[in-house]
Write a structure and sequence with these properties.
10 Kd Chaperonin, Protein Cpn10, Chain O; 1 helix; 6-stranded antiparallel sheet; mainly beta
Length: 109
């Protein structure tokens, strides 16, 4: 996966591309903002783009559990900061320790 955002994380930071918010459920029901917020309260899913130079180097990160560019990852909803990339897409810049899991592409859909 190419990093077209123009954002290059440093140190222990990671860059995650945010997925577009769905306002309509699979069944075609429009989800009110309040329900959408409640449903997404504890988690966010995005696409792992890039890690800074010392991300995932702490001993608590086993080598086989690190995400690769293009992996879908789960992280806390309010982790890090939102950034707009030069490509117009939304990104989250957060600490490597704020990632909770690597998930399958259809997770939460």
């Amino acid at each position: 996966m190419e990093n077209e955002s123009g954002i290059w994380p440093v140190h222990y930071k990671v860059l995650i591309q945010m997925l577009p918010k769905e306002e309509v459920s699979k069944g075609g029901i429009i989800i009110p903002d309040v329900q959408g917020e409640k449903h997404q309260l504890a988690r966010e899913v995005g696409i792992f783009v890039r890690a800074g130079g010392i991300a995932f180097t702490e001993p608590q990160w086993p080598r086989d559990s690190m995400p690769s560019p293009g992996n879908m990852v789960l992280f806390d909803r309010y982790a890090g900061s939102l950034q707009k990339g030069k490509d117009g897409k939304d990104y989250r810049l957060c600490n490597d320790t704020e990632l909770g899991a690597i998930v399958e592409e259809d997770y939460g859909r």
